[in-house]
Amino acid sequence: MKPNRIGLTFNQDHITGTQAKDDSEHIAAAFDFLTDTRDKTPLVHAYLLGLRYRFMNDSGSGDRAIELISQARLDEIHDYRPTIQDVVAWLNVAEMVRDLPAWQTLESSWLEQHVQPIVDALNQPPEDATLLDGFWLGVLNIGAGIVLNNETIFAKGQEFYQLAIDQYIHPEGYLKGIVEDGDETVTNTYQKQVSGVAALTLMAEMAEMAEVDLWGMNNRGVTPITAATYTLYYYYYPEKWKWEENLTLEAVEPIMKTDGAFIEIVNRRSPLRAIEQLFEDQRPMFNVYGGGLTTLTHGAPAPRKKKRWSLFGN
Fold first, then answer.
1. Do residues 270 and 227 lie in contact, with contact meaning Cβ atoms separated by under 8 Å?
2. Is the C-alpha dihedral spanning 23, 26, 27, 31 positive or negative?
3. Residue 120, Cα to own-chain centre: how many angstroms?
4. Which residues 6+ apart lie within 8 Å of 61 measured at CB?
5. Which residues lie below 8 Å from residue 180, measured CB to CB, with a gap of 6+?
6. Inter-axis angle of helices 131-147 and 80-97, to 10 degrees?
7. Per-domain residue ranges of the chain
8. What whole-number distance in Å separates Cα of residue 304 and Cα of residue 119?
9. Which of 139, 136, 131, 197 is nearest to 169 (CA)?
10. Which of 14, 15, 210, 215 has the most CB atoms in a 10 Å sphere around its CB?
């Protein structure tokens, strides 16, 4: 594991690609969103300030993000999954600004007194924790493992990711145990599907930024991209989603708008068919817990991988 020092879900290639496409309509819209910090929660404000530091070279914004980190309360668990998501988002902010001088005076105490204790506490799930909670705990462990430079915590997330690939992604893309649970009635199934696929996407992308390949894991070809592809299909054809009666486009559109920012990450990794209409309707895509302002970070095409030439032509 080689922790990066840019962001939990993006690196310098993402920044360079975005800056090269800053005249495109969707990137311009994302920059407009980035620079409007009115009426934002402290967490969202800090996250946007961190992005302004990284994508606009605005160190003053980075320093203001650090001030907000120092004021963040990470000591108490309220609702279990929302607390996990809050911690992950704050870790993402910290990763963006950790090369600034102001961070050096805060880093050690913040990680030791706030992050490590809450990560330890969240790794003791309540009795009523759900499988979806487990997905997000996997995100926390990979993210915290990177920020804390703790391979043991990182490995917990990596192990859960492998378990999810092997046991929970059906070849038809739905998440077993999340949208169906034996004889138990499951509600809000499409929203839970979106949240679960977002968690899988974040685990893989965070690990990728730490030079650990989780995207390449599969079980007979089934991967999170399988789940994302089918989730997109049911977005366009919600009446075919058989785990929730009377699901309509009017119902799935706000779910994707609120929780679907991860789809930009997936699309950059493996371009999705028929994604254009969703992007036209939804960009810029943003969820501080689900990858952030992903139209900015992942909306530009990935650079082509250089072909490796072999002396013997293999």
1. no
2. positive
3. 21
4. 49, 50, 52, 53
5. 174, 186, 189, 243
6. 20
7. 12-298
8. 37
9. 197
10. 14
Task: Give the CA-trace dihedral at 31, 196, 168, 239, to 10 degrees.
Answer: -100
- CA–CA dist 26, 188 (Å, integer): 30
Alpha carbon 199 to chain centroid, angstroms: 6
Cβ burial, residue 18 (10 Å; 0-12/13-18/19+): buried
236-270 CB burial, b ≥16 within 10 A, e <16: eebeebebbeebeeeebbebbebbbbbbbbbbbbe
Q: How far apart are CA 136 and CA 222, in angstroms?
A: 20
What confidence score (pLDDT) does residue 314 get?
38
Which tokens is 166 given?
Answer: 């092997």
Specify the residue for token string 């689900």: 290
Secondary-structure class of domain 12-298 per CATH: mainly alpha
The confidence score (pLDDT) of residue 94 equals 96
How far, in Å, CA of 164 to CA of 132, rounded? Answer: 11
Residues of the chain falling short of pLDDT 70: 1-5, 181-185, 303-314
pLDDT of residue 312: 34
